[in-house]
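Q: A reviewer asked whether we had any structural model of the full assembly, not just the individual parts. We don't, so I'm hoping you can provide one. Inputs are below.
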Amino acid sequence: EADIYQTPRYLVIGTGKKITLECSQTMGHDKMYWYQQDPGMELHLIHYSYGVNSTEKGDLSSESTVSRIRTEHFPLTLESARPSHTSQYLCASSPTGGNTIYFGEGSWLTVV
Amino acid sequence: AQSVAQPEDQVNVAEGNPLTVKCTYSVSGNPYLFWYVQYPNRGLQFLLKYITGDNLVKGSYGFEAEFNKSQTSFHLKKPSALVSDSALYFCAVRDFLSSGSARQLTFGSGTQLTVLP
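A: Here is a predicted structure for the entire assembly that you could use as a starting point for your response.
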């Protein structure tokens, strides 16, 4: 069982608010990822990191930003939330040289 | 570019019957193939993977998948379905660029499996 944690699990916020979704892993994995998933739909990679101070944008354009100051921590921030940001956000990690990606439980964001 | 297709949005099967969830892929090189399962309101859980070796891969919860290179398929199977297997299943593929670095994982659109009691 992988140890990757996301908070909050569920959040309802108003339009224009700033929100940070937290993601932490205790496995020492260098690679971390953020995926966006609408209910029952495919996953889309929005951000990834190969190590501290490394961040890249993924396949799906996103208005969110990420940071990687510590190996274990990969928070995602929305400066001004909009209803179109309503979705599930899944954090994941994998070890360098490893092929399996481990996922957190997900954060459900609803912007009203 | 790599891609993966799950041709069935929904699969229904009676409890105790064998189940198959289909996945086909397209890559330029040798693929690494994965299956993940997602239960309602949960994150994805890793089921199994194919990297190399035997074409039949065994994974968690009694699931297995068969890699078929000629048909570019990686179908997920289980000999006897359980009601608790009802979930959303994702196939994923990763291949490698000519530089040797791995591409990111590409997921299929998902297949909702419902096992009927």
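A: Points you may want to mention in the reply: Chain A touches chain B at residues 2, 6, 33, 40-43, 45, 48, 58-59, 90, 92, 99-106, 108 (CB under 8 Å). The mean pLDDT of chain A is 90.
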